[in-house]
Amino acid sequence: GPSNREGASKVSLLKKVPALKDGDFTLAECTAILLYLSRKYNTPDHWYPSDIQKRARVDEYLSWHHANIRANAPKTMWIKVLIPLFTGQPLPSEKLQEVMEGLSTSLKQFEERFLQDKAFIIGSEISLADLVAIVELMQPVGVGCDIFEDRPRLREWRRRVEDAVGKELFFQAHEMILNIKELSNIQIDPQLKEQLAPVLMKMLK
């Protein structure tokens, strides 16, 4: 795809999205991009607090997130939509169950260790930690795995994030994720299927 075209490696060494090009400066990896943008545009302090301990709490969550929430939540989308789309074959239900069990463990830790009884991850105001968390947790929702339904504390946190961001902007930002099932109806180039199918399967191992 476009990420393999000449020049992609000049923005991202791994030729993957997201990647940022800001004038002559290039940067890869979503967390690094978020932190760069928050500093460059002098965003309101609550997003990435100047208080050293509050900022450390954001960093703590971002470090934990990648090996836990991010390691499980997006896999629901791959299992239910993307891998069947590229391979032409549904994955066994046991694979989804395995991922959901791992995600459930991560969500329990998220609620008990990070959210606790606070409005947001680091306290009374929303931060980059909440944005990074919610965008991953909306992916299971988009494929019919409503992880918020039986978790009232998590559900209330999501509602507060929606309100803080603004409902219109929140759903605009997640529109593609929430409509991901529509991809099942598109036609994929056979050569692209052949190239990507083994790569996608490897991602779940």
UniProtKB/TrEMBL annotation:
Compartments where found: Cytoplasm
Please list the reactions this protein catalyses: RX + glutathione = an S-substituted glutathione + a halide anion + H(+)
Q: Where is the GST N-terminal domain?
A: 1-45
Membrane-crossing residue ranges in chain numbering: none
Q: Which GO terms describe its biological process?
A: glutathione metabolic process
CDD domains attached here? GST_C_Theta
Q: Which Pfam families match?
A: GST_C
Mention any one GO cellular component term assigned to this protein in its UniProt record. Answer: cytoplasm
What do we know about how this protein assembles, alone or with others?
A: Homodimer.
Q: What PANTHER family does the database record attribute to this sequence?
A: GLUTATHIONE S-TRANSFERASE THETA-1 (PTHR43917:SF15), PTHR43917
Q: Which family does it belong to?
A: Belongs to the GST superfamily. Theta family.
Q: What is this protein called?
A: glutathione transferase
